[in-house]
Amino acid sequence: MKLTLTLATLATAVATAKEFNGFSYNPKQLKTGACPTVDTVREDLSVLSKYTNQVRIYSVKDCNQGEPVLRAMENTDWKVQLGMWVSEVESVYEADRNELIRLAGLFDFKKHVSAVIVGNEAIYRKEQTSAQIAAKVRDTKAALAKAGLGSIPVTASETWPHYDPTLIAAVDYVNVHAFPFWEGTPIAGAQDKVFQHIYDVQKLAGSKKVVVGETGWPDAGGNHEAAVPSLANEQRYLKEFICRANLEKIDYIWFSAFDEAWKPVTNASDVETHWGVLKGDKSPKFASPMYDCKGFVPNDKPSSSSSASSSASSSKTGGKASTTPSGHSNTNKSDGKSSDTEDESDSDSSSDSQESSDTSKSGAASLLVGSGLSAVGIAASVAALAVSALI
């Protein structure tokens, strides 16, 4: 009886497990960049539900997107990481903060909001200091606590060289971005590169959890030095990163859900419309499952590293990035930093775009999915348990 109940519980976990911890998601309409409606968001979530039950957005105020996203999630098990855009203009943060609190009075944040993310690479863009972002994190935490929502984790998103002790002290967990593509890394070295950055940040973070808030690889566009965008490379990076993250119980948000045709070509980059795991017509680029961890063996974990200090001190290349919200960011080869490359398509001066991850489900499913295990890994756990119980 005990075995039957245990297997039934784990079988439920397999059925509900998703291939991804979560996606970066811009709810603007894929072809035109028009602001979302509840119906367009519901359509997107219906497509994405095959792969995950969590998305990250970058602003609640830009296009007033927070409300349709939360409305579309009502009566579902969807989770959202709500972003608040931060730039050098303080009123942008204030508008997002005010909208966040307004939405908290309308929706069940405890059910649907898995995190609140204050700022997206604002330190990298030199629009804020780490002390300024840390102060905004504390301000947001205080506002949520006043609304009875102090249990919702609050963090900030930054590229790996820019998470310093000041920012780490303020956040509930570290939400870090790393893109080997934007460092000009060939695909064969990308696994080592991204995990080296993770380990460096983990050392700095101490006891605080480190989540990869953004990583990915484009399938088309121009090369970035030795980094080549292609469908094969996107799938290789996806498999190597996620399978290793699952093994090491590292949560992540994948960049990104969809290819977005409306994004402009900026900073001499023509890859910005090609980061999705689904095409612009919402069809998948890869067969399901999109990756298979069977037989996967991670590269050796390095014993020490100086990559954080050496890369962080490198000079920045290229011009200053756009400060408007919308997606991820170009990461310069020399410093591993990302810069947002979207331009604003509506009158709101706030923001939108990018993702951490803790998929919450109940019972055994939450333990397994929250640990970052894929459906394939969970299925293996079921089989192993059945065999060991019968021996």
Report the top-level CATH class.
Answer: Alpha Beta
Strand coverage percent: 5-15%
CATH arch. level architecture: Alpha-Beta Barrel
Largest sheet: 8 strands, parallel
Q: What fold name stands as the CATH topology?
A: TIM Barrel
Return residue spans where pLDDT drops below 50 for at least 5 consecutive residues: 1-16, 305-322, 331-391
Based on CA inertia axes, which overall geometry fits? globular
Q: What's the end-to-end separation, in Å? A: 16 Å
- The CATH superfamily appears as Glycosidases
Number of helices: 12
Using only C-alpha atoms, the radius of gyration works out to 20 Å
User: What average pLDDT do the residues reach?
Assistant: 81
* β-strand number: 10
**Helix residue percentage:** 25-40%
Helix and strand sequence: HEHEHEHHEHEHEHEHEHEEHH
Oligomer: single chain
- The figure for the number of domains is 1
Topology at a glance:
Layout: H1 2-16, E1 23-24, H2 38-48, E2 54-56, H3 66-73, E3 79-84, H4 90-104, H5 109-112, E4 113-120, H6 130-146, E5 154-159, H7 165-170, E6 174-177, H8 187-205, E7 210-215, H9 231-247, E8 252-254, H10 307-312, E9 324-331, E10 338-342, H11 363-370, H12 375-390
Parallel strand pairs: 1-2, 2-3, 3-4, 4-5, 5-6, 6-7, 7-8
Antiparallel strand pairs: 9-10
Helix pairs in contact: 1-11, 1-12, 2-3, 4-6, 8-9
Describe the structure.
InterPro entries: Beta-glucan_modifiers (IPR050732), GH (IPR017853), Glyco_hydro_17 (IPR000490). GO terms for molecular function: glucan endo-1,3-beta-D-glucosidase activity. It is a single-pass type II membrane protein. The model is unreliable at 1-16, 305-322 and 331-391 (pLDDT under 50). The protein has a single domain, classed as Alpha-Beta Barrel (TIM Barrel), CATH 3.20.20. Strands 1-2-3-4-5-6-7-8 form an 8-stranded parallel β-sheet. It contains 12 helices and 10 strands. The chain has helices at residues 2-16, 38-48, 66-73, 90-104, 109-112, 130-146, 165-170, 187-205, 231-247, 307-312, 363-370, 375-390; strands at residues 23-24, 54-56, 79-84, 113-120, 154-159, 174-177, 210-215, 252-254, 324-331, 338-342. The radius of gyration is 20 Å and the shape is globular. The protein is an alpha/beta fold and 391 residues long. Helix content is 36%, strand content 13%.
